[in-house]
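Re-running the complex after MR caught last week's input typo. The corrected sequence lines follow. Everything else is unchanged.
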Amino acid sequence: MNKYKLSQAVLLIFLFLLANPFADGQPSTDVIIQAGKPVAEVQPVMWGVFFEDINFAADGGIYAELVKNRSFEFSLPLMGWRQVRKDGNGRVLPTFYSPARPSNPRYVTIVVDAESGSFGLVNEGFRGMGIKKDLRYDFSIMARTGSGKISGMKIELLGQNDEIIGTAQLSGFTGEWMKHSVSFKALKTEQKATMRILFSGRGSVDIDMVSLFPSDTWKGRPGGLRRDIVQLIADLQPGFLRFPGGCIVEGRDLANRYQWKKTVGPVDERTMIMNRWNVEIRNRQAPDYFQTFGLGFFEYFQLAEDIGAEPLPILNCGMSCQFNAAEVVPMNELDPYIQDALDLIEFANGPVTTKWGGLRASMGHPSPFNLKYIGIGNEQWEEQYIERYRVFEKVIREKHPEIKIVSGSGPSASGAYFDYAWTELKKLSPDLIDEHYYMPPEWFLQNAERYDSYDRKGIKVFAGEYAAHGKEGTASESRNTWISALSEAAFMTGLERNAEVVHMASYAPLLAHVDAWQWRPDLIWFDNLNVMGSPNYYVQKMFSTHRGTHVVPALSNGKPLTGKDSLYVSSTIDRKNGKLYVKIVNSSRSAKPARFTLEEFNPAREAGIETLRSDDPFSYNSMANPKLIFPSARTLIVEGRRFSITVEPLSANVLVFQAKN
Ligand code: AHR
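Corrected-run output:
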């Protein structure tokens, strides 16, 4: 039995033990929903999303650019490109490096030797290019001619067999650098197309910023984001968007850290760096993974605004990843890092007359982004973090008391780093402490009471990264199985029940390319043309789209249901729309009858029940079967305030009641 099979077997035994021993006798669980006794507010930001450029989430993912290494800035300048000779001769001269343009110094020179025929380059895209029949594609290139006469250029999209599935021509190059653009329609749909550019004439031409975008971007923005992926995120109605990570905030070393100022302004002036996930996971190396920052801080703020989420940027606190180089900026050299935080607040909220507010305006957004939260550090630990966090907190509090500050608590849900962070942070005053837990499904099933003992008056919790991993470590077997999603749903009833303590929560990571991932499981999967939600996605959606404004007690024998008889229940009421929501999770393989009483709530006769379930705890959605685990909805007829339901085996459900009046 391999390790994966063994872990499945252990989990099955666990589920069997959880099963109600009286299941055959069908004893009913009584649940009283005290709708008239709200105990806590549910924050509008309660359920949000965590975005990190991991698994080709940004470049090759949501950022719709189809050309890989468009500006020849990857460490190998021709990575992603190959030369083609189509009855013609030519060369690509060694890369030119122009220090006059420090943020984008490299370009290449193409020399075409033969008048007839053509010579050029092929770009392979990010594991190919997704091309859609009849869609308009927008090509652009920076070019200037050198010696001889390059008369023009042909752009060709190629299918799997190198057949031409879209073509356009450009001419009119001059001796000055200029952007040249052309748009054309694709003739065929292709999952893994490539793009060939062929030069005609004889002579040399310098090229840079070779770009191809589909026209069907989110909100039709040129150079924008993939609409289908953004739509799936928007459908979650997330309360916040955390960005840009994650470990990429920290960098493997400080030079590799995320610096927001290098991600704003004109796209061709943003300084590209290696993506740390390029080399991080031993068995999932991705040498062609870089960050072009076409999706930079302006675009993150804009995305948050578009989908109605509060922006939550996380900034480097003067420390690189402690699992990697663990570089720490000396305390007397921390000022630039703190200034970055202050300038970011100005970039997001400052008047257009300020330096950074002015930049925001010049990028097309004169009105402020209304930034309310800022996170300092990701998964840092020990006194090196606390010392630095303390200075950030002091300065931000003094200058921007209106901003809520999020601090970290290290990389795990318990242990020495975690305890130390909480002890020290209680002496300071962060508004929220970010907790991370990537644990087995059993842990999630057993920890629905995690926050019951947290101080109601203390610092609030941001469950900033969590996911049930069926397998620990870097093994590739971890998947978005139904049991992982179901166990998260069970745990999330505990987050919701404790909304007084837990103000924000986000599953992590958010996105993954099926052909280019480093980390699994992930909430949303995509290939070059399609996108799908994992079962975990539908669990998140179940909670976030049935959020409610206040928690109300859901009790069985006077106690919340936190796993007794494999049942987990939480309930919220929405004072704005008069709805009552009851989430109920059955983690066992037996159906569970439950008798509900709704106190102080007159439900309309027709209620709704949405169910997510699968008989196979190890099943998962795939591109071939993206809706294997998908919510189903039915109507529930409720006569009065008492009713019974049977909670299906291995299911997560939300009951939705509308108040009669
Ligand atoms: O979500 C993937 C990674 O997990 C994040 O980058 C990091 O914060 C955590 O360790």
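None of the earlier attempt is carried over here. The domain at 81-214 is CATH 2.60.120.260 (Jelly Rolls). The pocket of alpha-L-arabinofuranose is lined by residues 52, 54, 245-247, 378-379, 411, 436, 465, 508-509, 519 (CB under 6 Å).
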